[in-house]
Design a protein that fits this description.
The chain has eight helices and 13 strands. By secondary structure, the chain is α+β, with helices and mostly antiparallel strands. The N terminus is likely disordered.
Length: 275
């Protein structure tokens, strides 16, 4: 039985190595200097003003290393987040909306001087000192194979109705969805003509019902509609024409609905896609 007791520590060690940046992932590159490591307590020492953009996505820790080949240098960082949803959210916040998103992990982009992708609860970014797209691609693809975790997108992304959806705008908002504190965390998506959809997941139907009650108070005068367990539409001073509803532990709806569009019909299409 003794050999069996060592299998779990060994497996954990091998898994951990897969999430560690490694300059040997591409031929000709070697580590320059010491490996670096940061937590939420000291990330600002490395990223200064950008640290908050990581912390709001439930950042846990970062490991990084500089890699060198001749006169070329790469900065290779792997951030562990609390969950895969947060890792994908961080990717969306850093991606270039005008560039192609590739199927690298849950999603990735490779530019002449930067490669980023998210897989499982890990967000990977590799920066180059000059245009090195081939090296960046080699590192990104090799790293993606070693990192454990999911490569499929968060389920909620498929719930937004596809008609007139601007897909590159779908993203996780880590706090104050729609600018409302009561909507703590969720997804938003932009549609043609300015309408914006959102989906927020609460811990339970009871918790969602309490948030719905708070939403009614925040929006003010409204009219009840038959959507899900409860719903309403209103004209909001800040959010325009809105339609909000609750289905179980999910809160969702549309804001900024243009004249000539039916907010309840838009809400009904969204409701039909939420399981």
């Amino acid at each position: 039985m003794r050999p069996f007791r060592f299998l779990l520590p060994l497996a954990a060690c091998v898994a951990a190595l897969g999430q560690t940046p490694n300059c040997a992932l591409a031929p000709g590159w070697q580590q320059q200097g010491e490996m670096r490591s940061y937590t939420s307590e000291n990330l600002f020492e490395y990223m200064d003003g950008n640290a908050e953009g990581y912390l709001i996505y439930r950042f846990v820790t970062m490991q990084g290393v500089n890699c060198r080949a001749g006169e070329d240098t790469l900065v290779f960082d792997v951030s562990e987040m609390a969950d895969a949803e947060s890792a994908y959210g961080l990717f969306c916040s850093n991606r270039d909306p005008g560039a192609v998103t590739e199927k690298i992990g849950m999603g990735g982009q490779i530019a002449p001087r930067r490669a980023i992708f998210a897989k499982g609860k890990y967000y990977v970014e590799i920066g180059a000192s000059k245009d090195l797209p081939d090296a960046l691609r080699a590192f990104a693809l090799a790293a993606e194979k070693r990192i454990t975790g999911r490569s499929d997108l968060p389920e909620a992304l498929a719930w937004f109705p596809p008609d007139k959806l601007q897909r590159e705008t779908v993203r996780l908002v880590p706090e104050s969805v729609l600018g409302l504190r009561v909507l703590k965390r969720g997804y938003v998506a932009q549609y043609e003509r300015g309408a914006k959809a959102f989906i927020v997941t609460e811990e339970s139907p009871d918790a969602a019902a309490k948030v719905m009650e708070a939403l009614r108070g925040r929006i003010g005068e409204n009219t009840a509609v038959k959507l899900g367990e409860e719903g309403f539409q209103a004209n909001s001073q800040y959010l325009g024409r809105v339609c909000f509803f609750r289905k179980g532990r999910y809160l969702a709806g549309f804001t900024s609905v243009a004249d000539g569009q039916d907010p309840v019909a838009l809400g009904s299409a969204l409701l039909a896609r939420i399981p």
